[in-house]
# Entry
Amino acid sequence: MNELLEKVFRGKKVLVTGHTGFKGPWLLAILHLLRAEVTGYGLAPETKPSLYYLIGGDRLCRSVIGDLTDREKLKQVVDEFEPDFIIHMGAQSLVRRSYREPLETFQSNITGTIHLLDVLRFYEKPCQVVIVTTDKVYAESGTGMPYQETDRIGGHDPYSTSKACCELVTECYRLSYFHPEKIDQHGKSIATARAGNVIGGGDWCEDRLMPDVVRAMSHGEAVRIRNPRSVRPWQHVLEPLTGYLMLGAHQSRDPAGSAEGFNFGPDLQDTLEVEQVVQLALKAWGSGRYFCEVDSHAPHEAALLRLDSSKAKSRLGWKPRWNAHTAVLRTVQWYRHVLEDPRDALDYTFHQIQEYFNTRS
Ligand SMILES: NC(=O)c1ccc[n+]([C@@H]2O[C@H](COP(=O)([O-])OP(=O)(O)OC[C@H]3O[C@@H](n4cnc5c(N)ncnc54)[C@H](O)[C@@H]3O)[C@@H](O)[C@H]2O)c1
# Structure
């Protein structure tokens, strides 16, 4: 594992919101290897299959099934658990669903984040907090230039807008209640983390590329690609999760200096078109076909997204370890392995985490 992360997180109390989705169970597995004590707060797993159930998430954390819109319940959990760190990932995370359910998306993502930050106003212990947003918080520039942390925040669809609001709300609470210059008084370091599209084993969400690809390949069907020319910064789920933890670790050493926004994207050569990713996945699977069927009625989704992660590299020492090819290969290997032997899901997840940390960054 990683020496710095082991040193910082061993025996520490970490509250993870959104522990029952895709990234959550991977984070629980890493924190288990780091020997942290974890409480999870989120809704019951929604997908079938569910990565949380597959890896036996209840063995890796104390799981609280609760809604972020329930401020009192969230406050009770924070007050009882007394976390040293909070990784806030709980959110309605799907763009297309956000078009169908804008109100629910705004409530979970914006109100949920406000509730967490507000609960922290009354929490007396020091705490390092990472609010997870997305690369979609940047107002579309249309230039194709990689987004930097100083670029304008803004959204088009309800999901992106909700996450852009999370950035603004966080900034508001940071300036109003958790000002870095007054860290000695309140003890809270609040940072935000913006990552790109992630892939990895165990994602079964609707309308995401790799789950669609795996569903088709495992049924021997052709993969349907909706936006073959869309370019995304593809990265393995372990990349941003390591970034969130390195940010948290940095906050614990320099709470005032790291209470800011950080990008965690892949290297620029790993921003690939959707069609290229599907080709890589089929090659890794060993067989399969695809066809492109552009949906002309599809709601707007940003076509080109690139992130400049030089700040995370220079300030946190974070760097991607797996390029897009390896990320796709490891993802396909995970699905292949676990679909064949679901009982091995947790051990294989641990195996890939070790493999990741054994790769030089
Ligand atoms: N997956 C990606 O490609 C990606 C990319 C960038 C950012 N993100 C962000 O990372 C975070 C985790 O993403 P994911 O892929 O695991 O998402 P996911 O949809 O798989 O999981 C979302 C989690 O949030 C919880 N949640 C949703 N609404 C909630 C509510 N009202 N109250 C309590 N919990 C609630 C769910 O129960 C689940 O545990 C999200 O904040 C997402 O916006 C994801």
In short: The pocket of nicotinamide-adenine-dinucleotide is lined by residues 18-24, 42-43, 67-69, 89-93, 108, 112, 132, 134, 195, 197-198, 205 (CB under 6 Å).
